[in-house]
Amino acid sequence: MKRLAILASGSGSNAEKIMEHFQNSEKGKVVLVASNKAGAYVLERAKKFQVPTFTFTKKEMEEGILLKKLEEEQIDWVILAGFLLKIPDALTRAFPDHMVNIHPALLPKYGGKGMYGAHVHEAVKAAGEKETGITIHLVNENYDEGKIIFQAHTAIDELDTPDSIAAKVHELEHKYFPKVIEGLL
Ligand code: GRF
C-alpha cells in the first residue's frame, strides 16, 4: 500500500476527489494533507476524511520542515493539487519521479510563472483557443516542465468565459486525476 501526501494551498476540490477515490483502493492511501495556508478549505475537507493535516510557512518549507515531515510519514508519492509555492529543489530531489502535479491547461502552453488559477483560463480565452484541458505531469526543478503523464481536452466555444472554462477544466480534473494517480502507483 503506497502512502500518499497531498499538498494544496486552496479549496482542495481535487484533494477531496483523491481522498474519496483512495478510501476504496488497495494500491494507495492518503495519509497526509499539507498546506502552506492555515485557513485553506482543503484542511476542512481532510478532516471530513479523517486524514491528518500539516501546515507550514514558505520559510519553514524552505528550511526543510516539510521534507522532514514527509520522511517521517514515510511518504511514497507527493501529489500537488493546487499547491502554489515553488517546491524547493531538495524536496523534488527527495521524490524523483514520485511527485505529480496537475495543471489546468494543455502544457507546454499556458504554463510557467504566474500561470495558475484564473490567470490560466483568462489567457486561454484571450488567445481565442478552441480547446483547453488538463495536464498531469511529474515535477522537476522547473515549474510545469516535468514529464507529461496524461492530458485530456475539452472544447471552448465563443460563449465560454474564463469562469465557464474553469468549470469545464475542473470537471476533467475531478474525473481523471485520481485514476491517473492510481495508475502511477
Ligand atoms: C486546479 O485547477 C489545479 O489544476 C490547479 O489548481 C486548481 C486547484 O483547484 N493546479 P482545487 O483547489 O482542487 O479546487
From TrEMBL:
Site (Raises pKa of active site His): D144
Gene name, Swiss-Prot/TrEMBL: purN
Stated name of the protein: Phosphoribosylglycinamide formyltransferase
Annotated binding of N(1)-(5-phospho-beta-D-ribosyl)glycinamide, by residue: G12, S13, N14
Pfam families listed in its UniProt record: Formyl_trans_N (PF00551)
EC number: 2.1.2.2
InterPro entries xrefs: Formyl_transf_N, Formyl_transf_N_sf, GART, GART_AS
UniProt keyword list: Purine biosynthesis, Transferase
CDD domains, sorted: FMT_core_GART
Top-rank EC class of the record's enzyme: transferase
Binding-site list for (6R)-10-formyltetrahydrofolate: K59, N101
Free-text function comment from the UniProt entry: Catalyzes the transfer of a formyl group from 10-formyltetrahydrofolate to 5-phospho-ribosyl-glycinamide (GAR), producing 5-phospho-ribosyl-N-formylglycinamide (FGAR) and tetrahydrofolate.
One record GO biological process: 'de novo' IMP biosynthetic process
Family: Belongs to the GART family.
GO CC, one annotated term: cytosol
Transmembrane segments: none
Keyword Transferase on entry: yes
The Formyl transferase N-terminal domain, residue ranges: 2-181
Listed GO MF terms: phosphoribosylglycinamide formyltransferase activity
Pathway(s) of this molecule: Purine metabolism; IMP biosynthesis via de novo pathway; N(2)-formyl-N(1)-(5-phospho-D-ribosyl)glycinamide from N(1)-(5-phospho-D-ribosyl)glycinamide (10-formyl THF route): step 1/1
Catalytic activity: N(1)-(5-phospho-beta-D-ribosyl)glycinamide + (6R)-10-formyltetrahydrofolate = N(2)-formyl-N(1)-(5-phospho-beta-D-ribosyl)glycinamide + (6S)-5,6,7,8-tetrahydrofolate + H(+)
Active-site residue numbers: H103 (proton donor)
